[in-house]
Design brief:
alpha/beta; 2 domains; 9 strands
């Protein structure tokens, strides 16, 4: 059986590639869900991983749901709605929860269409870089359903409520330039430069002390919902940990001695 998610590590950078190019990398079925969740848990548990890049094999980032599987399951779902609720809870909804748990920074290298759940998958990442050929659509209404994978929570936090509502109510596509203009992505590059650009950004992140980077991501995630006083307490607790690391001492020494630092992850 073909591996659903390819894992390639080069130094402290891991590239995860959705690997169903013939079907444009749908993420809704159980095999792909399991593979994505496992890949995320694997990188988070590995202290040598400093940053990850997520992309798609072939011409698409992700087409989202498998419409053929959706069509074939429609009669059974109409007869037993409770089974559909369980299908989502134990299926695709595990993906955003897995992203929420991990502390490794993840860059989405959006190499082509990111449609429906594929767009929401990109939104789960911390940073999004788009190829010029990338297209984005919160297109669930086009097939008569809603975002069952967290899109209604994710998208407004990235582009604001008004733009998220426009995208979700119409299902219209954005091109890469439009995605950049509304803040959905942080950069657009020529197709051939996408992975090198993502890699260059990953290297800049990986150059920093890993404990500080992972804790910074956790604070940013928690800050989306926490009160200021709660976040300050969390920051103080984390600060007590990073102040005790060898990498912190090395960073300060290197700065004062005007030399490049050498971090070990300790």
């Amino acid at each position: 059986m073909t591996e659903h998610v390819l894992h390639h590590q080069d130094g402290g950078i891991v590239t995860l590639t959705l690997n169903a190019p013939a079907m444009r990398n749908p993420i809704s079925e159980r095999g792909m869900v399991d593979a994505i969740v496992h890949a995320l848990e694997r990188i988070d548990a590995d202290p040598t991983v400093r940053v990850a890049i997520l992309t798609g094999a072939g011409s698409a980032f992700s087409s989202g749901g498998d419409l053929r599987a959706m069509r074939d399951a429609a009669p059974a779902r109409a007869e037993a709605p409770a089974k559909t609720q369980s299908y989502y809870r134990h299926g695709i909804q595990r993906i955003p929860l897995a992203f929420e748990r991990i502390n490794v920074p993840i860059i989405a290298a959006v190499n082509g269409p990111a449609i429906g759940a594929g767009l929401d998958l990109a939104c789960m990442c911390d940073i999004r870089i788009a190829a010029e050929s990338a297209r984005f659509a919160e297109s669930f209404v086009k097939v008569g359903i809603i975002a069952g994978d967290g899109g209604a929570w994710l998208l407004p936090r990235l582009v604001g409520f008004s733009k998220a509502a426009e995208m979700a109510f119409t299902g219209d596509q954005l091109n890469a330039a439009e995605a950049l203009a509304c803040g959905l992505v942080s950069r657009v590059v020529p197709d051939a430069e996408l992975l090198p650009a993502a890699r260059a950004l990953a290297e800049r992140i990986a150059a920093n002390p890993s404990h500080a980077v992972r804790m910074t991501k956790r604070l940013l995630l928690e800050g989306r919902n926490a009160r200021m006083d709660t976040l300050l307490e969390m920051a103080a607790a984390m600060q007590s940990l990073v102040h005790a690391t060898a990498d912190h001492r090395e960073a300060v020494a290197a700065f004062l001695e005007k030399r490049p630092p050498s971090f070990t992850g300790a």
